[in-house]
Amino acid sequence: MHRCLLSTLLLPLIILAADKKKPEFGPLLSLEQIYEKNEFNSKGYSMKWLDPGQGYVRAEKSKETKDAQDIVQYNPATGRKNILVMAKTLIPKGEKKPLKLNSYTFTEDLSKVLIFTNTRRVWRRNTRGDYWVLNRDNGQLKKLGGDAEESTLMFAKFSPANSNHVAYVREKNIYVEDLGSGQIRVLTNRESDTVINGTFDWVYEEELGLRDGYRWSPDGKAIAYWQLDEEGVPEMNMLNNVSGYYPKLITFRYPKTGETNAIGRVGVVQLEDGKTTWMKMPGDPRNHYIARMDWADNSSQLLLQQLNRLQNQNKVMLAEVRSGKVKIAFTDEDQAWIEVRFGFTQWIEKGKQFTYVSEREGWRQLYFVSREGRKVRKVTEGKYDIIRVLKLDEVSQLLYFIASPDNATERYLYQIGLDGEGLKRVTPLGQNGSHSYSISSDAKWAFHTFSNLDSPPVTNLIELPSHKTVRVMEENQVLREKLSKLKRPQTEFFRIKIAKNLEVDAYAILPPDLDSKKKYPLLIYVYGEPAGQTTVNSWRGSGGLWHWMLAQQGYVVMSIDNRGTTAPRGNAWRKSIYRQVGILASKDQAAAVKQVLKDRPYLDAERVGVWGWSGGGSMTLNALFRYPDLYRMGISIAPVPNQRLYDTIYQERYMGIPKDNEEGYKKGSPITFAKNLKGKLLLVHGTTDDNVHYQGMAKLIDELVANKKQFEMLAYPNRSHSVREGRNTTIHLRTAMTDFLRRTLPVGP
Questions:
Q1: Among 39, 233, 435, 707, which residue carries the largest CB count within 10 Å?
Q2: What's the angle, vertex CA 201, arms to CA 195 and CA 206, rounded to 5?
Q3: Which residues form the domain of 727?
Q4: Distance CA 394, CA 408 (A)
Q5: 209: which DSSP letter?
Q6: Does pLDDT of 20 surpass 80?
Q7: Could you give the CA distance from residue 102 to residue 120 in angstroms, rounded to a whole number?
Q8: DSSP of 249-313, one letter per residue?
Q9: Which residue(s) pair with 301 in the sheet?
């Protein structure tokens, strides 16, 4: 639910009088240009850094092999390139075409490369597929897995100590394959069909960001791994009604709020004898989450992070892998919740200390923690949030991270000494917007990408710490030329004062020829959940172009970040919504809309609409149901109408356990206020959405019908949360949304 999907809808192209020389396209955008012809897609620059001194690699179109890619190594200083893997060497015996490169990994000496191909989707991402190993020394191309069925391997990795050993997950067990002998060994045991080894169930993957569930020991003699047992977790059922004459039942385990979680534990299996030692974690495993696990800078200990079910306590532990004994090194606590998604763990000083990111003092900062936890030192100091830690370089004694102390809508690179001194903005002044970086393993180079709401991404190779540009890698020049021919809307970022000491961030996209004496409809794009931020000054792709399109047609588009969003405005800002998700956020949104209507007389208070996807769909419902006299229409896609129907980890993190906050769950759920609907409402949902279930939509419809409330509904069969599967789905959805918008929130006097 919490993934903010920047979806778009477009109005039909207004036909202009043709010039003598017909242009490639006119000054106004169309639905077809963006979603069918992809005329305004931006390009990125994909690459991977190698070990220090080896430069970087990327897949590039092969000059020798049609419709295929070579893997090319580059020297960042000179730009000189070397083809490491030619496409023709990736043609399996008996085949005519090379393997498709979904991803690839080299050994440290570059002698072997692991190819991931023929992938299949597991939940959100394509994490199942086929793995092949190419030996660059002798040209041998070998498929892993023995007699494994097609596209059933996951997370294959070379041993860090022996490049002839590759581990992978197959059908929820961990295997190791000897490339020399061809021997394949299964290292784990599934005692029942509910057991998962080396990967995760739906809720761990979605809410803790965990997919790859095992780690090689540094000496290559053991593997540490998660095991989950879903026995007792309630089953969720969905129907595939389009693939045959009879419906097909889709069943998976999904713990809704207050329900039973899977049992989680961590074990270490020794390759020598195949025996697993289980770490002796404290507490009930069904009511704790092992949120993070890795080796503790050696092959004898693990560093584990264990969250309690409320997720307001994180115990950081050292575990002895031979005995399983566990010792608490550090405990982090919060009155609301602890966020592990922004964590960063690295061992320094030859294993004497490790890094930990915490909000314990009001802002998200980085700390050094001694191995035994006796000493904790804050490295970053000040009233600002670290948005993301990028690199800790012990050689230069510098920490690089993303922050924006003065403007929560932007993103910049900062550095600070490991002694906590010398805080400095590295990103040059004059480029207002969002900056991202991929820093080399030796922290001497970085790929820097810059964009803002008005400008598509530009990627440069830079030197660090000077930020000197070495060369431009991708500037999207073709796209820029196309954009220059458009009738560009006006954009602005601003703040709205909604209380005595409270301002919220917002942006506006205005018609190119706005006349302040006229009245314009206002459409609010909303998310508002505690896992996303909409008011970020960055290029928005097709979503942003839809908003441009609306502005071209006479709409004013705005987006507002209420309290509780992930904006870097401090712990108090983000966690003010604890136990009242949906309540405080919708109040802030409504207050901001009312204020902006006062501040801008050209906005028509009788034509205010709102739309959003996922959590934004929920907020759309809250807006229409709680403030029926303010919002006149809404488009709600894949919402959570009843918070009790969403998963344990996400919803309990922000709302607590249902039995302890029954009233909060009730008041925070839009369905409670469905009886208040006055405006026009379009509901959209995929019937096989494994994330936000169609069940919630069905219950909402039932409630609306019971209260004689009219609405429009689009149910997309066999589509997931993104509602994008199947031929012409996207263009169909956008067309329907466009039609509804024009009918219910018309442009004009």
A1: 233
A2: 170
A3: 486-744
A4: 29
A5: -
A6: no
A7: 11
A8: EEEEE--BTTSPPPEEEEEEEETTT--EEE----S-GGGEEEEEEEE-SSSSEEEEEEEETTSSE
A9: 320
What contacts 359, CB < 8 A, 6 or more positions away? 334, 338, 339, 365, 571
Mean local confidence (pLDDT), 488-512 = 97
The answer to whether the beta carbons of residues 687 and 640 sit under 8 Å apart is no
- Kindly report, residue by residue over 50-69, the tens digit of the pLDDT: 999 999 999 999 999 999 99
Give me the pLDDT at residue 422, please.
96
pTM of the model: 0.94
Q: Note whether residue 202 is domain-resident.
A: no
Using alpha carbons, list the distances in angstroms from residue 451 to 7, 433, 459, 549, 709: 19, 6, 9, 19, 43
CATH number where 684 lies: 3.40.50.1820
d(CA 226, CA 133): 26
Phi and psi angles of residue 452, each rounded to the nearest 5 degrees, phi first: -145, -175
- Tell me the CA distances in angstroms from 328 to 283, 291, 302, 305, 418, one per residue in order: 13, 15, 12, 10, 25
Do 437 and 455 touch, CB atoms closer than 8 A?
Answer: no
- Looking at the predicted structure, is the pLDDT value of residue 5 above 80? no
Q: What is the pLDDT of residue 749?
A: 73
Residue 168: both structure tokens together: 């992978």
In-domain check, residue 332 = no
Residue closest to 562 by CA, chosen among 543, 583, 546, 541: 583
Residue type, 521: P
Q: For the beta carbon of residue 53, count every other beta carbon within 10 angstroms.
A: 10
The amino acid at 441:
S
Our count of domains for the chain comes to 1
Residues 6 or more apart from 727 whose CB is under 8 A from it?
none
Q: For the residues of 121-165, what is the DSSP string, one character each? A: EETTEEEEEEEEEEETTT--EEESSTTPPTT-EEEEEE-SS-TTE
Residue 213 lies in a domain: no
* Beta strands, E only, 638-696: 680-686
The tens digit of pLDDT for each residue in 622-650 reads 999 999 999 999 999 999 999 999 999 99
HSE, CB side, 13 Å, CA atoms: give it for residue 647. Answer: 23
For 361-406, give the secondary structure using H, E and C. Answer: CCCCEEEEEECCCCCEEECCCCCCCCCEEEEEECCCCEEEEEECCC
Looking from the CA of 250 toward its CB, the CA atoms found within 13 Å total: 17
Average pLDDT score over the chain: 95
Q: What token pair was written down for 155?
A: 């997370």
Q: Which two tokens stand for residue 59?
A: 């897949």
Given a contact cutoff of 8 angstroms between Cβ atoms, the answer to whether 588 and 562 are in contact is yes
Contact yes or no for 27/486 (Cβ under 8 A): yes
**Does the bond joining 465 to the residue before it have cis omega, within 30 degrees of 0?**
yes
Residues 6+ apart with CB under 8 A from 743: 680
Find all residues with CB under 8 Å of 178, minimum gap 6, and list them: 164, 165, 184
428 located within any domain: no
Q: What percent helix, strand, coil does the chain show, rounded to 5?
A: 15, 35, 45
Q: Going by DSSP bridges, is the β-strand pair 125-135/301-308 parallel, antiparallel, or unpaired? A: unpaired
